[in-house]
Recover the amino acids of this structure.
């Protein structure tokens, strides 16, 4: 009756796992991608930014190695070579995605998809021809694009993160509009490599998803890198000159070689013509779904950045993609509620579950306990003593409800906390688990002991 059992629109970190999982479950599957396999995350987001951040970290460590007895002379960096390495990593991973799809028997179709009905798509292919497809189930995984407000000048010096990643020369002066995750990650990377960076955020502080004590550590480190952070007012009167971009913050005039716009993302739903399939979207263009990622149309699912209320993270999209594929195959899978987040600033940050600020907002009583990296042998040995781990727990039962960590390898450390939250562990169960020494992960155990004021490696309160 249909050409395919499942068609996935978009081959990003949500789409290609959805297609692979559907194929694993015996479904005849196709995936439609209008640009590059791997989507924004692999091609213009997570992977390229983290590749550049890794290069910046190598340079930073070399520049500050004398304390470790390592003397480096004539230190320099080649940003064009960093960009070339980034492109090589992206190409290898994108090819790997296509290899995985092929090995699972998924038909890969290049082109831009549009709904013609709840089970029918038209796909405009690169050669201009249109291919018509039908499927019993369709999974929308079209992702999102950088938001570029209409008041901004249309000029090559005003760019989103995707365009910035294509620069072969690092700007000497970088002006960033937006102090969220993306803006701060780029700010840290550029500042480590010597750019004079200014971040303007109209909210009261940067990265407001974080608890105040975590933001405090991040801001202090960013400022130590020479980053100027301006909050609580917008960047106004933005204009492009011959060789610069200017703007005003309160009564201060700012200038940069380029303006990097990092004010959020918008869903890629407009071109899909959802109304033709009867799929409902909200005023932002995002799509409401149930716990199985099903839209209001039973045969259509939606995952990733374009889902209403969804956290915009690659690993969240991946889990949703697997859930949608299994639901399309008749299984009763549901989206996981506990999804950790990771931020690749300097220092790194990880968070999972309930934040202290959110608990206060909801009127939920919690007790927080923390342990600083400065008290860890491994952190001292590595010269990475900034930051701490923090548990947010029920004050009576000790059940861990949330966690935040800022410091060295925080993005690796947060997964242990997410596992504890998901499995409803208590601080006693975490603290009673032997952790290897000397490691950074010991901080979780020590912080758990602090719940009962029984922390071995902190002075008694």
């Amino acid at each position: 009756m249909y050409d395919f059992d499942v068609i996935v629109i978009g081959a990003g970190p949500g789409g290609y796992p959805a297609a692979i999982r559907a194929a694993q479950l015996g479904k005849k599957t196709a995936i439609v991608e209008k640009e590059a396999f791997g989507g924004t995350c692999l091609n213009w987001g997570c992977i390229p930014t983290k590749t550049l951040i890794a290069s910046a970290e190598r340079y930073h460590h070399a520049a500050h190695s004398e304390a470790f007895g390592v003397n480096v002379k004539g230190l320099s960096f080649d940003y064009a070579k960093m960009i070339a390495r980034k492109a090589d990593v992206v190409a290898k991973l994108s090819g790997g995605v296509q290899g995985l799809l092929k090995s699972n028997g998924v038909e890969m179709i290049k082109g831009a998809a549009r709904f013609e009905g709840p089970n029918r798509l038209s796909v405009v292919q690169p050669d201009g021809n249109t291919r018509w497809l039908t499927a019993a189930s369709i999974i929308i995984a079209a992702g999102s694009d950088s938001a570029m407000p209409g008041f901004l000048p249309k000029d090559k010096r005003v760019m989103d993160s995707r365009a910035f990643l294509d620069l072969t020369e690092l700007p000497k002066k970088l002006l960033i509009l937006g102090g969220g995750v993306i803006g701060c990650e780029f700010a840290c990377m550029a500042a480590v490599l010597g750019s004079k960076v200014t971040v303007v955020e109209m909210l009261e502080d940067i990265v407001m998803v974080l608890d105040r004590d975590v933001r405090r550590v991040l801001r202090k480190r960013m400022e130590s890198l020479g980053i100027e952070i301006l909050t609580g007012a917008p960047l106004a009167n933005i204009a492009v000159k011959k060789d610069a971009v200017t703007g005003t913050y309160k009564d201060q005039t700012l200038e940069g070689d380029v303006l990097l716009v990092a004010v959020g993302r918008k869903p890629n739903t407009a071109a899909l013509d959802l109304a033709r399939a009867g799929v409902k979207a909200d005023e932002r263009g995002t799509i409401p779904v149930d716990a199985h990622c099903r839209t209001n149309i039973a045969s259509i699912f939606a995952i990733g950045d374009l889902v209403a209320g969804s956290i915009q993270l690659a690993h969240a999209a991946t889990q949703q993609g697997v859930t949608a594929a299994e639901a399309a195959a008749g299984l009763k899978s549901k989206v996981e509620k506990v999804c950790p987040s990771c931020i690749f600033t300097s220092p790194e940050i990880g968070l999972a579950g309930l934040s202290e600020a959110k608990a206060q907002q909801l009127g939920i009583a919690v007790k927080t306990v923390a342990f600083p990296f400065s008290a860890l042998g491994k952190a001292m040995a590595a010269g990475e003593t900034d930051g701490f781990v923090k548990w947010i727990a029920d004050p009576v039962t000790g059940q861990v409800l949330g966690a935040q960590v800022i410091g060295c390898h925080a993005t690796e450390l947060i997964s242990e906390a997410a596992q504890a939250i998901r499995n409803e562990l208590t601080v006693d169960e975490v603290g009673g688990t032997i952790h290897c020494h000397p490691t950074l992960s010991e901080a979780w155990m020590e912080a758990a002991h602090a719940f009962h004021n029984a922390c071995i490696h902190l002075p008694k309160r």
In short: DSSP finds 13 helices and 22 strands in the chain.
